[in-house]
Design brief:
globular, 12 helices, Rossmann fold, hydrolase, 284 residues, alpha/beta, seven-stranded mixed β-sheet
């Protein structure tokens, strides 16, 4: 029996059978592969307009992460598992030098993937995401010091999300989203995705990202990287300073500031598409 099972596993590996992933994927278009990773609590649909812009030239692999927007949750650690699964997905699908585009948490994930596997991708676009979100206000903060604080107790934070009243949750999130996107319809859509998300996943991923510092790790990245930030504290100069602090050890980078809120691709799509086209078309 053991010999038979070993034979089956060996044949499966030789045939290139892909292992299942915890995230969902929608593939659209033809050409060089582009992997689009949404941000915290969002569906891959957040990239619909971007996919429409790219699909005639690129094959777009749009992810929705586990526990977000109706996708089934997984056990912790969530983000590290997703990182490794995306790497495996690229290899299993034999995607040759894909481009990674990530927003917010998705940008963090793109940095983490590219740091762990520097030769895996050809280009990286980080849309309003950083390698250590907790240090945006104070670059001297360490992940170790944060983990000791009660407010970063992952189980407690997850339970706090569970305890939020369901009947008012979506409306409250929609109101808060107006600080991150200018259009109220978009705010309601983002809030709906959040309402469809697993509450514990919302808590655990928030703590995992907040206590993971990859500012040193990104020095390993070799792919040309475009970093686009929104207006932090309504100041372009503040955005530039913070992004240069966060990305200090990443050498092949271009930093741009969008005069928008957090969802840059929603607030100014014409400018956004122009910048990513210029970056993707450059020979580097």
């Amino acid at each position: 029996m053991k010999t038979f099972l070993f034979f089956i596993l060996l044949v499966a590996s030789q045939l290139g059978f892909a292992q299942p992933t915890s995230f969902s994927v929608t593939v659209t278009g033809k050409g060089q592969p582009v992997i689009l990773i949404p941000g915290y609590s969002c569906s891959g649909e957040v990239w619909n307009e971007t996919v429409a812009h790219l699909k005639d030239r690129y094959q777009c692999h749009v992810l929705t992460l586990p526990g977000f927007a109706g996708v089934a949750p997984i056990k912790t650690p969530i983000l590290q598992t997703v990182r490794d699964e995306i790497i495996r997905y690229i290899k299993d699908k034999h995607l040759q030098k894909p481009i990674l585009i990530g927003h917010s948490l998705g940008a963090f994930m793109g940095l983490w993937i590219s740091s762990k596997e520097p030769l895996l991708i050809s280009k990286l676009i980080c849309v309003d995401g950083v390698p250590f979100i907790s240090a945006m206000g104070n670059p001297k903060i360490s992940a170790d010091s944060l983990r000791k604080l009660p407010i970063y107790n992952a189980d407690a934070v997850a339970q706090n999300f569970v305890n939020l009243p369901t009947d008012s949750y979506e409306a409250n999130v929609a109101k808060s989203m107006l600080t991150q996107v200018k259009d109220s319809t978009r705010a309601r859509q983002i809030a709906h995705w959040s309402a469809l998300s697993d509450r514990r996943t919302l808590g655990y991923t928030l703590v995992e990202m907040s206590t993971t510092d990859i500012r040193k790790d990104i020095s390993a990245i070799q792919a040309p990287t475009l970093v686009i930030g929104s207006l932090y504290f309504n100041s372009a100069s503040t955005t530039e300073r913070i992004l240069n602090e966060q990305y200090a050890l990443l050498k092949p980078k271009t930093i741009l500031v969008a005069h928008t809120k957090h969802f840059i691709m929603y607030d100014d799509p014409t400018w956004f598409f122009g910048q990513i086209d210029q970056f993707l078309n450059a020979s580097n």
